[in-house]
Every structure is written in C-alpha cells, then in structure tokens.
Amino acid sequence: MFNFYKINGYIYNKISNKNLFINQKYQEKILEEVYKESFQENYFSRSYCQYLCQKKLYKQNYIFLNFISFFLIKLILLFFKIFSKKIIKEEKVKVLYFGIEKTIPKEFLNYERKKLENHLFLTKKDIEYFENDILKKSKKEYYFALKVLLKMAIYRYNIEKYSPEIFLVTSEYSWTSSILTEFCEKNKILHINYMHGNKWYVIRDSFFKFHKCYVWDEHYAEIFCELKAFEGQFEVIDYLDFIPQINIEIKELYNTYYLQIDETENELEQIIAILEKLRLKTGYKGKIRCHPVYTPKKIKNKIPKEMLDEEKNIYHSIVKSNYLISKYSTVLYEAFVMKKGTVVIDDITKGIEKYNSLKELGWISGYKPHLMLSEIIKEDSI
Asked: Is 8 a residue whose pLDDT tops 80?
C-alpha cells in the first residue's frame, strides 16, 4: 500500500527541535496570541491553532516543510484518484488503538482490539472533504494539511478493513487530533485519547478535542484546560489500574537512579559518585537503570556491571528501591502511586534550574511528596 507516512516522519525528525522545557510565560504569550487571532469553536480551528502554537514554539524550517508538503499532497491525491482500490474487509474489530498497551484504560481491556495499521487509503468523499474543508482553509500551510491528510488516510484504511467502533489513541500532542475527531464523527466512530506519558505545560498539547480523554490525575486535566483543550472531555482514571500485583521476595534494597534521554558521560560519573555516597550513608548499594529506549549504548557501556539494574520488570525495580532517583522520569510518579520507596529528585547533575523550570511548568512529581538529592548529599556531608 502507498505509504508516505515514513517519509513525513523522516523529514520532520531531520529538522525538528523539540524542546519541552521552554519558559511558561513565553509559551502563555504565544497561546494567547494564537487564541485571540485565530480561534473559533470548531474542530478545524482547534487543530489549526494547535499547529500555529507548535510552529511559533519550535521555529522549524516551515518554508522547506511547506514546499515539500505541497508536492506530496498533490502526489497522494493524484494516486488515490487514479489507482484507488477497495480494501478487503476483515472481521470487525471493536477497538483499534495506537499507543502504549500498558496504559490502556481497563474498560477497554475486555474488548477485541487491534493496533492501528499504518497504511493509507482515501475514498472520493474523503478527497472532497480534504480539498474543501481542510486544504482551502489551511492558508497555504501545506505541512499542516499534509499531516491531516496522512492521518485521515490511515484512519480510512482501518475503517474500511476493520469497521471499528472506537479509535483509542495517545495523540494529544498531534495537531491532527481535533480534525480527526470530526472525521470519526462523520463515520460514526468514537475518538478517544489516553495519556501518552507524563505531562507538563507545553503548548504543543494545546486546543485538542476528543470525544473523551483519560488522564491519570486531576492535575493533568487542569494543565490541559490551561492549554485551552476542550474542557468537557476529561475523565480521571486510577494509575494503579495499570500496575500489576507484585509478589516477589525482597532480599535486598537498593538506591536506584533512573536515567533519561540527556545524560552525558560526565554526569554519569557524577551519578556513580553520588550513589557511592548514598551507599555509605544508608547501607544500600547503588543501581542505575537505563531508559528502555533512549539511553545511548556508550552511556550504558560505562555503567559498572555490578551497578546496572537489569530487572526485566520495572515494577520489580521500584519495589526493590530505597531511594528512587531521577531528574523527571515517570517512575517517580509510579513510585508515589505505589507508595514504594522514597522519591528523590536529582537537582544536582543538571542543576536546580532544571527542577525549578519543570515545577513552574506543572510537572506533577514536583508537587507530590519528594526529597531533593542536594539536601540528602548535604546532610551526608555534615
């Protein structure tokens, strides 16, 4: 099946500069400007305003993106006008999902479900809808229109093949989401979102509207509402529902450091030294757990073998920890929910400024019970 989705992703990642820790007042200024100049209460406007926020925030090379997108749109539309074939239907699947399976709300676990397939298809009506209701209104922002077209084509392919009743996604960050909610309505399908991961104030996640959006805490709903997402969509679910029953024998506790995406070799040396200081103070050995996706091999290879946390189950690692230390890992929130160990926020390796910035942006772990790593080390040195 014709697939431009990977091409789009490749282009975007090559020129993308996605900083998620930008000053809140600066972001609020952009949000208010976009709201006053462009917002209307409809699905297209919500998607377009979210796009404008991201465009102003990240300052990517949108001239190049729009140039490439103009030709890709023409090519995709031409292809489906000439070569479009019917999709072979398979057995009906009630829920098609895109996102992390671990955090799917429990009410969907008993339904037959299948992962959304990344193939494209468009009907004649879809092309007319896109040309008249999306492309003409997009003010020559062709990259905005291209992403909508790609997502719409993916949804159509899955609709034709599986006849779903629900699209269950983790897409609050995508400017296509609100238009896709309208697209789902036209096809009598529910468009439901569940959280992609930990969130704080970033206007990347602004203006979106789903039929329902599940969040882990009222705190997140408040942040999204500040970002002008549709207020009537939120439902709070208990994060404990995602955590399996842990029945293991705990022979030894550790002070565990959870790496993120941005540790340097110098910072790793600091972390190792800090864990040794904590061992002398608490009597618990130090462990370092790599991020399952983002820790570079060169960093992992520099972790002493005896300090490498290789527990296959993250929750086994949590229950075996005395101190759970990180800069901003979701593990800190999970430990709070599980009531296991002591949450410690690292304000040393990146400095107190990173912590203050995150707390200003509404990072939830900054508002839950925790200790500061600098204070523990300071006490240790007295």
From this structure: no
Is residue 268 within 8 Å of residue 236, measured between CB atoms? no
Region 131-157: mean pLDDT is: 97
- Report d(CA 248, CA 318) in Å as an integer: 12
* Contact call for residues 224 and 362 (beta carbons, < 8 A): no
For 264-274, letters b (16+ CB in 10 Å) and e give eeebbeebbeb
**Do 145 and 135 meet the contact criterion of CB atoms below 8 Å apart?**
yes
Helix (H, G, I), strand (E, B) or coil at 257: strand
Whole-number Å distance between alpha carbons of 138 and 81: 21
* pLDDT tens-digit series, residues 113-139: 999 999 999 999 999 999 999 999 999
Q: Using alpha carbons, select from 22, 19, 314, 53 the residue that is nearest to residue 172.
A: 53
Mean pLDDT across 27-31: 97
- Compute the distance between CA of residue 226 and CA of residue 26 in angstroms, rounded to an integer: 14
The two structure tokens encoding residue 49: 């305003």
Q: Which of 312, 256, 250 is nearest to 284 (CA)?
A: 256
Domains of the chain: 5-242 (no CATH), 254-381 (3.40.50)
- How many Å apart are CA 210 and CA 177, to the nearest integer? 7
Q: In one letter, which amino acid is 237?
A: I
Distance of CA 274 to the CA centre of its chain: 30
Structural element, H or E, at residue 146: helix 142-162
Element spanning 330, H or E = helix 330-338
Q: Are 48 and 38 in contact (CB under 8 A)?
A: yes
**Continuous segment of H or E residues that includes residue 201:** none
Query: For the chain, what's the residue count?
Result: 382
Beta-carbon contacts of 162 under 8 Å, excluding residues fewer than 6 positions away, are 89, 90, 91, 92, 93, 96, 114
**Contact, 76 vs 152, CB < 8 A?**
no
